[in-house]
């Protein structure tokens, strides 16, 4: 029987900048509701750092949750998987943390730990000013993003 794949769910953002911290809010909700999910680690990645490369190397799969500029209305949730995630991060419409995230994934690629299964669950921000709570449309998107993440984990486990 095959070893169960492990999944790192990395919530990214600065919770002092309203919607910019939505990835952290989503991962906190996931930790509250799904802490016992087998093979899954939920991590507050903050504003990203290279120290996360080791944690990424310990997992087979990666889901990043972040504020993402997509041009959709505030609170819209998108999911980019695999090469779609790669294209999004190198395209014109990037995650608020595109440089740090791209650098972290480059380290994973260079160290031969690039996750074959990877996804970005992004929430369109409305406000990136100082404030500890997300705007109303982004707060309403948190449970939607939680469902997206759990759906990905469950689907990947079946494949």
Automatic annotation (TrEMBL):
Top-level taxon of origin: Bacteria
Family label: Belongs to the peptidase A31 family.
tRNA-binding in keyword set: no
InterPro entries in UniProt: Pept_HybD-like_dom_sf, Peptidase_A31
PANTHER family membership: HYDROGENASE 1 MATURATION PROTEASE, HYDROGENASE 2 MATURATION PROTEASE
UniProt-recorded name of the protein: Peptidase M52
A GO MF term: enzyme activator activity
Species per Swiss-Prot/TrEMBL record: Sedimenticola thiotaurini
């Amino acid at each position: 029987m095959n070893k169960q794949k492990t999944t790192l769910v990395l919530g990214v953002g600065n919770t002092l900048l309203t919607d910019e911290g939505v990835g952290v809010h989503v991962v906190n909700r996931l930790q509250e509701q799904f802490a016992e999910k087998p093979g899954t680690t939920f991590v507050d990645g903050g504003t990203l750092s290279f120290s996360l490369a080791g944690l990424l190397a310990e997992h087979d799969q990666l889901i990043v949750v972040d504020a993402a500029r997509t041009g959709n209305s505030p609170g819209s949730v998108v999911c980019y998987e695999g090469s779609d995630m790669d294209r999004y991060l190198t395209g014109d419409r990037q995650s608020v943390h595109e440089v740090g995230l791209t650098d972290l994934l480059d380290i994973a690629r260079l160290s031969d730990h690039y996750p074959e299964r990877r996804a970005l669950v992004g929430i369109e921000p409305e406000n990136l000013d100082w404030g500890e709570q997300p705007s109303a449309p982004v707060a309403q998107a948190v449970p939607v993003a939680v469902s997206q993440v759990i759906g990905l984990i469950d689907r990947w486990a079946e494949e």
